[in-house]
Amino acid sequence: MLPAVREVAQGRRLRWPLVVDLDPTTLCDLACPECISSGVLNQGQFSRDRITGLAHELAGSGVRAVILIGGGEPLMHRSIGTVIEVLHGAGIRIGLVTNGTLIGRYLDELASMLSWVRVSLDAATPGTYDVFRPSRRKSSVFPQIIADMRRLAERKAGRLGYSFLLMQRFDGEGRLTATNYPEVQQAGELAKDIGCDYFELKAMLDADHFTVNQAAEHTEPVEEQWSRLRKLEDESFRLLRSSNWLAVRSGSDPVQKKEYAACPVAELRTTVTPTGVYICPYHRGHEKGKLGDIAEMSFEEMWARADTTTIDPREDCRFHCARHPVNVEIGGLRHREPPEPADDFDPFI
């Protein structure tokens, strides 16, 4: 990875990105009111021929890792098993972000071929789950997801994560009507009991990806639960907090200032969806962030034509961006000797 990062730090383009975020479909089997991807849902999916062809294109490229994500729920695409097999067979590392409802359908592939699976649950009980993650089915899918995660934990070759997005609802007068905040500790304990490798806490963002600062009466109880969870950490189980939750917890300005005019990570990682290829997931569905389309051209041709400088982070990425610390580090490589390569190479930038 380091040679590629050096190239980008010097302002040169790579023949291939190292990582591809791939949205196989924009369809989802849940109906979450707070879904931040609601604006790009239900806009179709790759045809079976195209997504299989794309998998073979990536298999023959210099791409090192593919993250199956969305948009919609990636496991809803009927060809996803074939895609996983093709990528895995080419030595490409695979990650998956999923709502977990279809883990059972692809248990063999997920257990043996993926580097990691992260399940977005955001609750510790069926009641709270159904409030924030309602299913189109007649009964709650929460018990099924937990049962399938246990089965996956028993067989997995890679890592399994339990993701918890902090969510609140308020009425027109600003009164709290629903929250999952009290279930942080219970969810963390459940994650450990399932056999997950980590439990991740994240802050809810507004529709434009900005953090929403909150009163201490809401954030402090979360931190108290987090402190109690610390006793569960060991070599096989970690607790992770997203940068956006740390920003909320510290009361940071929702606007994150950036000094660079182009995003270096955009040269290393890109987002491929049925409606186009975008500079990153933050700009998924936005015309300005669209790099091209692979409906009528190969991935290689699209990437050769792509212009990642169309987005100016100083103006277009004023939210707290998960890529910002990496961008700062890459920018600094222009003026200093790079560090020695780490032993634990991880292609998921």
From TrEMBL:
It comes from the Bacteria. This is Uncharacterized protein. It comes from Streptomyces fradiae.
